[in-house]
């Protein structure tokens, strides 16, 4: 609700003020929501445990750095 507290606006002035308020409300309603925050995958603890740990053996050191 909008209430005129002081003064005596004409119907045209009141209509202009209401148009501005409605336009502002419509603009805020149509504004897109902020983008979701993307976490930094580089430092994510889950990144370390994505692949299975290679079994010990003569070529295990090579499999730790190259995907299977």
What's the gist of this structure?
The chain is 41% helix and 0% strand.
The shape is rod-shaped
Tally the helices: what do you get?
3
What are the low-pLDDT stretches, counting only 5+ consecutive residues below 50?
A: none
Q: Work out the number of β strands.
A: 0
How much is the average pLDDT? 77
The percent range for helix content is 40-55%
Strand content is under 5%
Radius of gyration, CA atoms, in whole angstroms:
31 Å
Derived from helix and strand composition plus strand pairing, the structural class reads mainly alpha
- In whole angstroms, the N-to-C terminal distance is 66 Å
What's the helix-strand series? HHH
Fold and architecture overview:
41% of the residues lie in helices and 0% in strands. With 68 residues, it is mainly α. The longest helix has 20 residues, at 11-30. The N and C termini lie far apart (66 Å).
Which features characterize this protein?
68 residues; mainly alpha
Question: SSE layout and pairings?
Answer:
Blueprint: H1 11-30, H2 45-48, H3 60-63
């Amino acid at each position: 609700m909008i209430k005129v507290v002081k003064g005596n606006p004409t119907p045209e002035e009141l209509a202009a003020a209401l148009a501005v308020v409605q336009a502002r409300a419509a603009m805020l309603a149509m504004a897109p929501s902020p983008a979701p925050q993307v976490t930094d995958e580089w430092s994510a603890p889950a990144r370390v445990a994505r692949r299975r740990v290679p079994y010990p053996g003569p070529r295990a050191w090579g499999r730790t750095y190259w995907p299977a």
